[in-house]
Amino acid sequence: MKAAVLFKDGFEELEALSVVDVLRRAQLTCLMVGMDAMSVKSSHGIEVKMDQLFDESVYDVDIVVLPGGLPGATSLRDDQRVIDILKSFNEQGKWIGAICAGPISLEKANVISNKKFTCYPGFEKEIPSGIYQDVLVCCDQNMITGRGPAAALEFAYTILEKLGQPSKDIRKGMQYHYLVK
């Protein structure tokens, strides 16, 4: 199984890198994909080197993940390549993950309609076609959404499980054992 996390300047570090960290600990391929550059700066000024630039190969992964953070999430939403890949993944029933403000792209791509989701409080107003849930992580059909930075690890563990890998050993190894399933 392969994953791709999409990055634009202004991404939220915890939300993006927790997914990369957890999936790589589980020996899954998780690509950090720069939409515009091989070096992307977070919303808190941390520069991160990408594995690759966005190209057609990203369509071959099993899940695409959108982190939050501002202006990263709005920049992802305003990028037609992101909208196109979300539509394609949804049509194929492939996994889509979005956390914090990230789900605003799901609304623009028209892939969240009548599906349950969560997001950072206040952004649900920008997602009128979905069914907002006040939870840390929410799964509905092929969508996995997370509330915000505090949900980052649970969001990453949920992605791992949806990709067919148990998270119990990874949780224990990361000392997250109080919530081991």
Notes on the structure:
The protein has helices at 13-25, 72-77, 80-92, 104-108, 152-162, 168-173; strands at 2-7, 29-34, 39-41, 47-49, 52-53, 63-66, 95-99, 116-117, 131-132, 137-140, 143-146. It is of the alpha/beta class. It has a single domain (2-179), classed as Class I glutamine amidotransferase (GATase) domain (Rossmann fold, 3-Layer(aba) Sandwich), CATH 3.40.50. The strands form three sheets. A seven-stranded mixed beta sheet has the order 5-2-1-6-7-11-10, sandwiched between helices. Strand 10 (137-140) and strand 11 form a beta hairpin. The protein is globular, with a radius of gyration of 15 Å. The two termini are 22 Å apart.
TL;DR?
This is DJ-1/PfpI family protein. The protein has 181 residues and is α/β, with parallel strands linked by helices.
How far the N terminus sits from the C terminus, by CA atoms, comes to 22 Å
Shape: globular
The CATH architecture name reads 3-Layer(aba) Sandwich
Total of DSSP H or I helical runs spanning 4+ residues: 6
CA-atom Rg in angstroms: 15 Å
Helix fraction, binned, reads 25-40%
Strand order of the largest sheet: 5-2-1-6-7-11-10
The major beta sheet can be summarized as: 7 strands, mixed
Indicate the topology.
Elements: E1 2-7, H1 13-25, E2 29-34, E3 39-41, E4 47-49, E5 52-53, E6 63-66, H2 72-77, H3 80-92, E7 95-99, H4 104-108, E8 116-117, E9 131-132, E10 137-140, E11 143-146, H5 152-162, H6 168-173
Please supply descriptive tags for the structure shown above.
single chain; 181 residues; alpha/beta; two-stranded antiparallel sheet; 11 strands; DJ-1; DJ-1/PfpI family protein; Class_I_gatase-like; DJ-1/PfpI
